[in-house]
Every structure is written in structure tokens, then in C-alpha cells.
Amino acid sequence: MQFSSTTTAQEVATAFQDDIKGKNVLITGTSLGGIGFDTALAIARYANLLIITGHNADRLKAAEDALKQQLPTANIRPLVLDLSSLTAVRKAAAEVNAYPEPLHVLIHNAAAPISENFKLTTDNLETQIATDHVAPFLLTKLLIAKLLSSSSSTKNPTSAPRVIFVSSSSHVILGSINLNAFMPNPKPENYSSLEAYTQAKAANVLTAAELSRRAKGQINAYSLHPGNIHTNITQHPESKALFEKLGVITPSGDPAPSLPWKTFAQGAATTVVAAFDPSLDDKAGTYLVDCVPADDQVGEACTKDPETASKLWSLTEEIIGEQFEFSH
């Protein structure tokens, strides 16, 4: 099947249903009104187990109910996960590690609102840096043994477990990665909402590439740009001013007519490709756009430099206070 910008997540899942069957998948950020829900809906139809997460228990329950209403026989398991707290990430990871099932695919889909207001998390990290980069890094580290153990439980043992980072295309406007932006206790006067967002999303691309390099075939990681989608992020009260300034939405809050927009189902499609397309087995670390590899669209200055990726990796290990180990 030929995939494109108009391909839907369900079309991808149908094409790869044999690759999804028997798999246990965890996806963060599955609230209604975002592409995570459509990603979950497509995967849940065929997966053995789908773990959905959210920081708000009521919204998580609403997503669970909506999934089960459409797919009554799907095996859905909700998990409360607050990515703005490293303590909460450790608590949720411990819960997942206690599950009897292995984990085949980990999808980092959740993201913080892009706020013009400077905020620190309980760990004294800038909120977007914490939620979009540091917490996913820690969650991956804590679940790595469970991912590695899944390779012997799948029908296709040659296919390595996968970790997916939903990034964006914003890194192309970035001159370089600013490692100081990732440090605890940043100064409010240095804060820019756009800078924090682009740094965090560029870090997703770097982390996918570095994780794949360090795992040496044991784990395959991928990053992607889902496209322009009018989600709950672009409509969030704290984010609207920035998106209007960028020309993404109009003053009335509607999607800017000059941009190519995708539906939620189309926006979720590339994530499903990254998670299950067997043709990507030998392309670990790849960045995808519109359901196909697009490493040529990665900004050379900030996201294709192995030295920068390695430095960011080491810095993030220092921040979480833990070393990443690939043993199980």
C-alpha cells in the first residue's frame, strides 16, 4: 500500500494488522481532542493490549470509555501518568513493570501546552522540556528491560521492540540545540515559548537516533512529524496567542487557511507507520513525515549531529540521576 499525507491511521493499522496482532503497546497522551486518541483507536482494534495514559483521571476515563464504546472487545488498560513530575513517572513505570505482559511498543505522544507563561515543574525544569523530553527519556529508561524482554514473546522475534517519539517539523527553524535550555532552574528572563518547544521537539529527533545507536539493534526508535492538526494543543487557552502569532490559527481561533491541515486520523497515521511498518526494521533512528522516511527534512545543524545527540543523552542522564542500561 502506498501511504501519503492523506492516509489515515486506520488504513495503516489495517495494512499492518498482522504486525500489530499479539503486541502490547503503551501510548502517552490519549485524551479526546488529540491525535493520541486516534492513534489508540487504530491500534486497539488489533493489539493484544493497549495501555493508554493521561495525567487527568477523568479525561483518561473518558478516553477509555470512548475507545470501548467503538471497540467493545479491545483490551484497554488506563494508566495515570503525569509527565510533569519525575516522581510520578517513576510511580507509573513501576506499575507497568508489575504488569505480567511484556511491552512491544512504547509511543511518546503526549506534549505540554505551549504556554507563553514561564513555568517550572516540581523538578525545577521548564515545563515543555520536562514533559516533552526529560520525562519520556526517563520512562523509556525505566521500561527498557520490559521492552527488551518482549523480543522473545512475539511471533516475529527478528523485529526489535520499538520506541516512537512524536516530534514536529519545528526543528528546521532551529539554528542549534541549546543544551542550557535543558538544565534545571532556567532563568525566566531567558524563556521563550517557541524556543522551549523547538528545543524539546528537536531533542525527540536526537533521542530517537541516539537510542537506536546505543541499543545496537536491541531497540529501534523513530521520530516523526504528524503534520498540522487542529488539536487540543492548538486550542489550549495558554497556547492560542503563540499559534496566532505564528500564523497557525486565525484571531478567531480557526485553522489558518493558508496551511495544509490534516484530520486527527490523518495526523495519527505516521505514528502507526513508525510503530509497526516492518520495512523500517533496518532504518532505526529514522525521522518520518507523511508516513514515509524523511531524514532529508531534518535540520542538519541541530538534529543530525551525533556529538550533540550524545551530549544531550549524557546531560539528560545527569538530570534524571540515572544511567541508561541496555540489559535485562
UniProtKB/TrEMBL annotation:
Keywords: Oxidoreductase. SUPFAM superfamilies: NAD(P)-binding Rossmann-fold domains. InterPro entries: NAD(P)-bd_dom_sf, SDR_fam. The keyword Cell membrane does not apply. It comes from the Eukaryota. Gene3D superfamilies: NAD(P)-binding Rossmann-like Domain. GO terms for molecular function: oxidoreductase activity. Belongs to the short-chain dehydrogenases/reductases (SDR) family. This is Short-chain dehydrogenase.
